[in-house]
């Protein structure tokens, strides 16, 4: 089966692009799952309900890692056999920490682990599922080589870009 795909909604796994390098087509628009807020409820004798101790030490919410998966169709016409695609992708992802960038959200990146979870094939096409376990916050990509822009307002997203490295957001 041959596909037409323009690479619009690809994902960068470190230096590898899911479409340009691996010829993977997302089965749906890629979105990184939100982190779950960590909670700690305690039952106190003589009191109705439970006490939420989640914010007791931090003064604010604490989040767990973002976990989820992406499913892709494999454009087999670009590979020399499905096993080549499988081995190539698996060798680049397994056991490495990586930065993940969605081309739909190119100003931010996520950090964590990605790995090949499963590969399925039938007569017409193959799919590959890549799972991830990422730090709860996404980080802004900051380019320090260029000179400062006097008016950093972004008309597409409606935000003013900050030049401080390490900026995080949910």
Please outline what is shown here.
The chain has 170 residues and is mostly beta strands. Helices cover 7% and strands 36% of the residues.
What is the 3D form? Answer: elongated
User: What low-confidence regions span 5 or more consecutive residues with pLDDT below 50?
Assistant: 160-165
Mean pLDDT: 84
Instruction: Please give the CATH class.
Output: Mainly Beta
Radius of gyration: 20 Å
Please provide the count of β strands. 13
Number of domains: 1
Output the CATH topology. Answer: Elongation Factor Tu (Ef-tu), domain 3
Provide the β-strand percentage band: 35-45%
Fraction in helix: under 10%
Key structural traits:
1 helix, elongated, single chain, mainly beta, 36% strand, nine-stranded antiparallel beta sheet, two-stranded antiparallel ribbon, 170 residues
Report on the structure:
By secondary structure, this protein is mainly beta. It has one domain (11-32, 64-169): Elongation Factor Tu (Ef-tu), domain 3 (Beta Barrel). The chain is 7% helix and 36% strand. It contains one helix and 13 strands; from the N terminus they run E-E-E-E-E-E-H-E-E-E-E-E-E-E. Strand 7 and strand 8 form a beta hairpin. The longest helix is centred in the middle third of the chain and has 12 residues, at 82-93. It is elongated.
């Amino acid at each position: 089966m041959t596909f037409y795909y323009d690479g619009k909604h690809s994902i960068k796994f470190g230096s590898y692009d899911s479409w340009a390098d691996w010829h993977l087509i997302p089965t749906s628009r890629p979105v990184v799952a939100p982190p779950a807020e960590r909670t700690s409820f305690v039952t106190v004798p003589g009191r109705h309900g439970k006490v939420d101790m989640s914010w007791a030490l931090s003064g604010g919410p604490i989040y767990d890692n973002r976990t989820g998966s992406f499913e892709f169709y494999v454009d087999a016409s670009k590979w020399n056999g499905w096993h080549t695609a499988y081995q190539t992708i698996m060798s680049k992802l397994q056991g490495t920490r990586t930065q993940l960038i969605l081309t739909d959200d190119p100003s931010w990146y996520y950090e964590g682990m990605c790995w090949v979870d499963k590969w399925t094939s039938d007569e017409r096409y193959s799919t590959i599922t890549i799972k991830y376990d990422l730090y709860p916050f996404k980080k802004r990509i900051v380019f320090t080589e260029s000179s400062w822009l006097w008016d950093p307002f972004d008309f597409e997203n409606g935000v003013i870009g900050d030049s401080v490295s390490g900026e995080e957001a949910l």
